[in-house]
Amino acid sequence: MKIVVMSDTHGRIEVAQDIMAEMNEIDLLIHLGDHYEDAIFLGKYMNIKVAAVKGNCDREEALKEIILELERHKLFLVHGHQYGVKMSLNKIYYKALELGCDIVLFGHTHMAVNIKHDGVLLMNPGSLSLPRDGSRASYGIIEIEGENVISSIIEV
């Protein structure tokens, strides 16, 4: 299963459209907020399934958190502002443990993170449209094959 992970597109989806048009065999698009409607548009544009959460800048009536079970893995999707991810990843990490999730996907900081801590993958794909603090525009790819999870950040 191949998953594209994006966050914080803020209505600027031209780069996302170009990237996704070049990809093959995408099974799922995950969008982690701040312009929830971008996720809906991209899903229709690519004719793929979408899982998306509401960010702190979104007004839509959408879920703020989602738990997905994919293959043998449990994913926690959240924008991240409600867990103070700009200051520390502790709260979001412990929430994932509480929920029994082994993959945590979040945004909000506009800076990419791809780390594994005690068996829990924490990924922030960064932002394709508004990267911060000298980081480059980026998105994430997760490939799941049974127990194996391969995650990567792609800079544009």
Automatic annotation (TrEMBL):
The keyword Protease is assigned to this record: no
Gene3D superfamilies: 3.60.21.10
Keywords recorded for this protein, A-Z: Metal-binding
MF term (GO), any: metal ion binding
Cofactor: a divalent metal cation
Any Pfam family the entry gives: Metallophos_2
Taxonomic source organism: Marinisporobacter balticus
Source organism superkingdom: Bacteria
Protein family per UniProt: Belongs to the metallophosphoesterase superfamily. YfcE family.
SUPFAM superfamilies: Metallo-dependent phosphatases
InterPro entries found in the cross-reference section: Calcineurin-like_PHP_lpxH (IPR024654), Metallo-depent_PP-like (IPR029052), MPP_YfcE (IPR041802), Phosphodiesterase_MJ0936/Vps29 (IPR000979)
EC code: 3.1.4.-
Protein name: Phosphoesterase
Nucleus keyword on record: no
UniProt xrefs under NCBIfam families: yfcE (TIGR00040)
Residue ranges constituting the Calcineurin-like phosphoesterase domain according to the UniProt record: 1-146
